[in-house]
Design a protein that fits this description.
Layout (H helix, E strand, L loop, with lengths): L1 H26 L20 E3 L3 H26 L3 H12 L1 H10 L7 H20 L5 H21 E3 L2
Parallel strand pairs: 1-2
Helix pairs in contact: 1-2, 1-6, 2-3, 2-4, 3-4, 3-5, 5-6
Length: about 160
């Protein structure tokens, strides 16, 4: 019974978090978010285009898909109470090791400083999430998960790939 309640809670939390992210992305382009959850001071005015070479663009797209798949797998692992698996996924797929993989894929492409700021905020939020998951305390874990997801949302609010 306990597992079912945790799974239901995680599913609800996931839906709420994704709904919050989509609501923010669609309706609040000022980048507003809860106080204390500030990811970056990069203002959201008009989405900036990233003009990248084709290979770097494809590498970035692959990394973004992997980030999304990792978030999905992390939420699933948390729902199954597989805290060790969730922590490993978080650290390896969203933390700084993934940043180094992404840099290799992007083949030395030049990114604006604002992009680097948001990327570092994302990886730092993921590292903090990975550090708190072993507590097995969802009241600590979920706010860090929210902050990590918000880092993704913020970057997608600020940047787009140039066609």
């Amino acid at each position: 019974m306990k597992r079912g309640k945790v799974w239901a809670g995680m599913t609800l939390a996931s839906l709420l978090l994704s709904g919050v992210g989509f609501t923010i992305a669609e309706t609040n382009h000022s980048g507003g978010h809860k106080p204390g959850h500030e990811i970056s001071k990069v203002p959201v005015t008009k989405r900036m285009a990233l003009d990248l070479p084709s290979a770097a663009k494809e590498g970035l797209k692959l990394t973004m898909r992997e980030h999304l798949e990792a978030i999905d797998a992390i939420v699933g692992a948390l729902g199954r109470e597989d805290f060790a698996g969730a922590a490993t996924l978080t650290n390896e797929e969203l933390g700084f090791p993934k940043h180094h993989v992404a840099m290799q894929r992007e083949q030395g492409a030049t990114f604006p400083p604002e992009y680097h700021e948001l990327a570092m905020a994302h990886h730092q939020a993921a590292e903090a999430l990975g550090a708190v998951i072993p507590t097995k305390d969802l009241k600590q874990i979920l706010p860090h998960l929210e902050q990590t997801i918000h880092a993704c949302v913020k970057c997608h609010q600020v940047f787009r790939l140039q066609d």
